[in-house]
Specification:
This protein has 13 helices and five strands. It has about 325 residues and is mainly alpha-helical. It folds into two domains: about 210 residues, Rossmann fold (3-Layer(aba) Sandwich); about 90 residues, Tyrosyl-Transfer RNA Synthetase, CATH 1.10.240. The strands form two sheets. The protein has a three-stranded parallel β-sheet. It has a two-stranded parallel ribbon with strand order 4-5. Helix 1 links the parallel strand 1 and strand 2. It binds tryptophan. The site of tryptophan has 13 residues, from strand 1 and helix 7. Tryptophan binds next to strand 1 and helix 7.
């Protein structure tokens, strides 16, 4: 079975943009591949952060992912597998400075930091993609499901693997590939020209754990006419509502409402009603699962520690073999 690796930083809540764009796909991939999914807390240290919050967010994300259907056995917390950082150090010596300097995520994030209070930019932020390469290669992952924004990091991982393989004279590391799945891009219902996002503010995102009244209110007030629509074209707001309906697998209503639209008979209130009902149904289910999980927090933590430990065994084998291959001292030498 081919192996899939992906990871997510422990920042805040999961909204429907994250869910339909990534997490739902993670859940689906579990049927076809051996999946390993990490909550990458070491990566979260690369920007200014609060230690207490980091730990809280890491566990909160674990509970959320479980409630959304990610399997326990697939999940690990990066800092419980410290071999990632050891491999990162080794990889630092196989990563070309000029290539790492060129990473657009580093450029964007360091610009953000420069405009912050003290302008501090950490070496960790610079090294972030090398740690990411370690996350992927340590499990000899064949596929990495990520969005287009991570393409450059994936390319760097392949280059590191290739240089390492050349140096040691064998095809030790698998060259990972992006597993590109067409996932819906969800926009803010309050401003359908912008991506749904947490940072844009409360009205620009809908949490997957949102309460029914709030979902209904946000969908009821969704912007449908953006004023920039050409005659005969669907407005961005209406399109976004249709995308939400389709992403919710509500095909019957989608088809019926789309037919109404084509015939010029679509009532926005019907479309909104269908979208709100679909989201409420999903969120009710997620909230139910989440409250079960939260009842047994302690046990869930222990289970995730155990799954991380099991996943760690694989990482330890890789690092031990890598040390042998690159001339470091190991128990047997
Ligand atoms: N950089 C990724 C992001 O911003 C998160 C990430 C860290 C990741 N390590 C990874 C993704 C390994 C895929 C594989 O989304």
């Amino acid at each position: 079975m081919k192996r899939v690796l992906s990871a997510i930083q422990p920042t805040g809540d999961i909204h429907y943009g994250n869910y339909f764009g990534a997490v739902k796909n993670w859940v689906k991939l579990q049927n076809t591949y051996e999946c390993v999914y990490g909550v990458v807390d070491y990566h979260a240290m690369t920007m200014p952060y609060n230690p207490k919050k980091l730990r809280e967010n890491t566990w909160a994300l674990i509970y959320n992912l479980l409630a959304l259907g990610v399997n326990k056995e697939s999940l690990f917390i990066q800092s419980l597998v410290p071999e990632h950082t050891e491999l990162c150090w080794i990889f630092n010596n196989f990563a070309a400075m000029g290539r790492v300097e060129n990473m657009t995520q580093f450029k964007d994030k360091s610009l953000q930091s420069k405009s912050g209070a003290d302008g501090f930019i950490s070496v960790g932020l610079f090294d972030y993609p090398v740690l990411q390469a370690a996350d992927i290669l340590i499990y000899k992952a064949d596929y990495v499901p990520v969005g287009a924004d991570q393409k450059q990091h994936l390319e760097l991982s392949r280059e590191i693997a290739q240089r390492f393989n050349n140096q040691v004279g064998e095809e030790y590391f698998v060259l990972p590939e992006i597993l590109y799945t067409e996932t819906p891009k969800i926009c803010s219902t309050a401003d359908p020209l912008k991506k749904m996002s947490k940072s844009a503010g409360e009205k620009h995102n809908i949490s997957v754990f949102e309460k029914e009244e709030v979902i209904r209110k946000k969908i009821r007030s969704a912007v449908t006419d953006t004023g920039e629509t050409k005659a005969g074209e669907m407005s961005a707001g209406v399109e976004n509502l249709f995308i939400l309906l389709k992403a919710s697998d509500n095909n019957v209503e989608y088809d019926a409402l789309m037919t109404d639209y084509t015939n010029g008979k679509l009532k926005y209130s019907d479309l909104k009603q269908a979208v709100a009902d679909s989201l409420v149904e999903q969120s009710n289910h997620f909230n139910m699962k989440k409250s079960e999980i939260l009842e047994d927090r302690k046990q869930v933590k222990n289970e995730i520690k155990a799954s991380s430990e099991a996943i760690r065994k694989f990482a330890q084998t890789t690092v031990s073999e890598v040390k042998d291959l690159c001339g470091l001292i190991n128990v047997k030498y």
